[in-house]
Design goal:
The chain is mainly alpha-helical and 507 residues long. 61% of the residues lie in helices and 5% in strands. Helix 4 links the parallel strand 4 and strand 5. The longest helix is centred in the middle third of the chain and has 35 residues. Belongs to the NOP5/NOP56 family. InterPro entries: Nop56/Nop58 (IPR045056), NOP58/56_N (IPR012974), Nop_C (IPR042239), Nop_dom (IPR002687), Nop_dom_sf (IPR036070), NOSIC (IPR012976). Keywords: Nucleus, Ribosome biogenesis.
Length: 507
């Protein structure tokens, strides 16, 4: 039975002389009290020394990841060619599984092996006689530093810390610039209050103060490099009739020192933004294309890292940054917020007020997919983000136009979107509709000659019905009379027909 012991200098393989001692875990430390007892239990079979620090670092990283390095593979192949039936005691279960899969060597890992490794570490100087203690300590320190730098450089959790720190510093610089600019405007406003209204740009305002000084020097100073011609003329005219107070040279010197500080911070902020932009394009290109550098960096900073942001669902990405509003809405049982940090993205800003919620939901879904591709994808490209951005812009146009299209024709022409407007209709009062009285029967003198003729025909029909004599001639006459009656009714106007029927009902 062999024991694999890993050292900063190389791999040491010991042979366990008495396997029964391994079963007595509680009393195993007694066998390692002195170097002589340790040498009786363990015998150094082979020591594979590392050539340089690079090889030691690769072996250490492979052991951390549970993989087998090349030097270890070569050593075990040479050792286990003759000793096929022997087993190997390892300190890491993952490394033992890797050895078993590739070399078919049975590996043992249990509590007894852990206690044995602790005892070997205690008597390592006597068991490894060829390596002095000072050299072993130096190699252990160098390997520890190299392994720490490797983890800091290549760990995906540590790379985006630069983005998080840069974005936090950028926000702090913006706050400081705003405070300094307010102080400079208020301070210089006592001397030249009209200048703050004439020059709205903060950087141009600071450069003007630094170049001119007091307002008495405004007329002789050339401001063409800072201000347009029209603004320059207005500033010089206002300086002649200004109502500000007089200040000393010491006061204007302190104000100019504040202006120097503002200009230096602004210059550093520009440099830091360029650094953040290039860093975001290298780390998360798809997310940067979708939401922009600033919003993407704020999302990563709020989540803690790019991998943490990739683990969030799209609904969480949508309201990331609005946690207070969310919990307040849940507590008061009101509507939850529709957007958080993603509100500052360009696509959400272009949408109208009623479509901002829909666009933030769509953008959050695509941003979640883009983040996962950036975090776990092997190739760094922005094709996915560009494709999704085109689709989101098309969706935004459809939402703004009302999503109306022609059903007939080519289908390409868009119909005009008319907003719904309530149209007020005015109804007039009709008193005739409220009349519930029956129509009075008109006198015979008031009726027209045609109505009189119709009445005579109806009376004749009634008498014929009562008589009904037998014979075909009278029936023919009756049919002729009915035909004449139908013709007269068709020729009569509709108003008179109504009057006639009402008279019949009254009779």
């Amino acid at each position: 039975m062999f024991v694999l012991y890993e050292t900063p200098a190389g791999y040491a393989i010991f042979q366990l002389l008495d396997e029964k001692k391994l079963a007595e875990v509680d009393n195993l430390y007694l066998e390692f009290q002195t170097p002589e007892k340790a040498n009786k239990l363990l015998k150094l079979k082979h020591f594979e020394k590392f050539n340089d620090t690079t090889e030691a670092l690769s072996a250490a990283t492979a052991a951390v990841e549970g993989k087998m390095s090349k030097p270890l593979k070569k050593t075990l192949k040479k050792l286990f060619n003759s000793e096929v039936q022997s087993s190997l005691l390892v300190a890491d279960a993952k490394l033992g599984n890797a050895i078993k899969d590739k070399l078919a060597v049975p590996c043992v890992y249990n509590t007894g092996v852990q206690e044995l490794m602790r005892c070997i570490r205690q008597q390592a100087d006597s068991l490894l006689s060829g390596l002095p203690k000072r050299e072993m300590t130096a190699m252990a320190l160098g390997l520890a530093h190299s392994l720490s730098r490797y983890k800091l450089k290549f760990s995906p959790d540590k790379i985006d810390t630069m983005i998080v720190q840069a974005q936090c510093l950028l926000d702090d610089l913006d706050k400081e610039l705003n405070n300094y600019m307010m102080r400079a405007r208020e301070w210089y406003g006592w001397h030249f209050p009209e200048l703050g209204k004439l020059i709205t740009d903060n950087i141009a305002f600071v450069k003007t103060i630094k170049l001119v000084g007091t307002r008495e020097n405004m007329a002789q100073t050339d401001l063409s490099d800072i201000l347009p011609e029209e603004v320059e003329e207005k500033v010089k005219e206002a300086a002649e009739i200004s109502m500000g107070t007089e200040i000393s040279e010491e006061d204007i010197m302190n104000i100019q020192c504040l202006c120097d500080e503002i200009l230096s911070i602004d210059e550093y902020r520009t440099h830091l933004y360029d650094y953040l932009k290039t860093r975001m394009m290298a780390m998360a290109p798809n997310l940067t294309v979708l939401v922009g550098e600033t919003v993407g960096a704020r999302l990563i900073a709020h989540a803690g890292s790019l991998i943490n942001l990739a683990k969030h669902p799209s609904s969480t990405v949508q309201i990331l940054g609005a946690e207070k509003a969310l919990f307040r809405a849940l507590k008061t049982k009101k509507d939850t917020p529709k957007y958080g940090l993603i509100f500052h993205a360009q696509l959400v800003g272009q949408a109208s007020l009623k479509n901002k919620g829909k666009m933030s939901r769509s953008l959050a879904a695509k941003a979640s997919l883009a983040t996962r591709v950036d975090a776990f994808g092997e190739e760094a490209s922005c094709e996915l983000g560009a494709t999704h951005k085109v689709k989101l812009e098309a969706r935004l146009r459809l939402l703004e136009e009302g999503n109306l299209r022609k059903l007939s024709g080519t289908g390409k022409a868009k119909a005009k979107f008319e907003k719904y407007q309530s149209k007020s209709e005015v109804f007039t009062y009709q008193p005739e509709a409220d009349n519930t009285l029956s129509v009075k029967k008109r006198k015979h003198s008031e009726s027209s000659p045609a109505e009189v003729q119709d009445e005579s025909i109806l009376e004749a029909e009634d008498t014929n019905k009562d008589l009904e004599p037998a014979g075909g001639e009278k029936k023919k006459k009756k049919k002729k009379k009915n035909k004449n009656q139908d013709q007269e009714q068709s020729e009569a106007p509709p108003a008179k027909k109504k009057a006639k029927t009402k008279e019949q009902d009254s009779d």
